[in-house]
Amino acid sequence: MGRRGRATQSGSGSSGSSGSSVPPARRLQRARIGDLRLWAGVALLVVSMAAGATLLSVGDDTVTVWRASRDLSAGSPPVDLEPVAVSRNVAGDRYVGSDVDAAGVLRWPVQAGELLPRAALTLPAAAATREVTIPVDPMHAPAGLQAGDIVDMWSTARDAASADAQVDAAPSLVLATVRVTALAGSDVGISGELGVVLAVPADDVPAVIAASRSGVTDLVAVPLASQQVRS
């Protein structure tokens, strides 16, 4: 009885010893789950960093080109340009880069806010022109007239007793689609006329001078939509 009792007690002790090995297995399982969550977090962080780098590289893929800050007429030099950054995919090679000196004249009108196309620029035609300054009353010129605008020049015969236009006289077209090259200044002359410089074909110079002296001159703006594409 004494030996069996000891054996039984010894067996009970062994059983208790084997039961104490379960908790370490559970802690190992929790550690593995924690490792999986850690690696998942690292992977998510890497993916986020890669996505951010891609977005930044796309945002940096831009070029700077010229944009018209006002309406530019056909046949005029590309003036009043401003640089603007656009997507390289949008710009391609179609527009003039801001690192290039935009020279020449425009083959067609470019509206304010439009990018300057490369195809719109051409070398000025070798035409025999002269710059003629004519006096124009500010009320007989387009509002905001400036260099590069295209106008028609009209003349109305003056009244013999005054400097005003004859009431019953019909105006006549002196020169169509002539370009304004400069404004000599405001309040020029004793009557406060504007000195408007026009690029006049050499053969038309006598008619322009005669009309500006003998009649009342009106300059009529030619809208961009009515201007012809130049070769």
Q: Can you describe this structure?
A:
It is a single chain. By secondary structure, the protein is of the alpha+beta class. The chain has four helices and nine strands. It has three domains: 22-60; 62-122, Type Iii Antifreeze Protein Isoform Hplc 12 (Alpha-Beta Complex); 129-226, no CATH class. It has helices at residues 2-19, 22-60, 88-91, 205-214; strands spanning 62-68, 81-87, 105-106, 121-122, 129-136, 150-157, 172-183, 194-201, 215-221. It starts with a helix and ends in a 10-residue tail after the last strand.
Brief overview, please?
The protein is α+β, with helices and mostly antiparallel strands.
Topology of this structure?
Layout: H1 2-19, H2 22-60, E1 62-68, E2 81-87, H3 88-91, E3 105-106, E4 121-122, E5 129-136, E6 150-157, E7 172-183, E8 194-201, H4 205-214, E9 215-221
Antiparallel strand pairs: 1-2, 3-4, 5-8, 6-7, 6-9, 7-8
The SSE string, one letter per element, is HHEEHEEEEEEHE
How much of the sequence is in beta strands?
25-35%
Largest sheet: 5 strands, antiparallel
Q: What level of helicity do the residues show?
A: 25-40%
For the secondary structure, the number of strands is: 9
Structural class estimated from helices and strands: alpha+beta
Distance between the termini: 126 Å
Rg is 42 Å
Q: Which stretches are low in confidence, meaning pLDDT under 50 for 5 or more residues running?
A: 4-19
Number of domains: 3
Spatial shape: elongated
Tally of helical runs? 4
Mean pLDDT: 79
Order of adjacent strands in the largest pleated sheet: 5-8-7-6-9
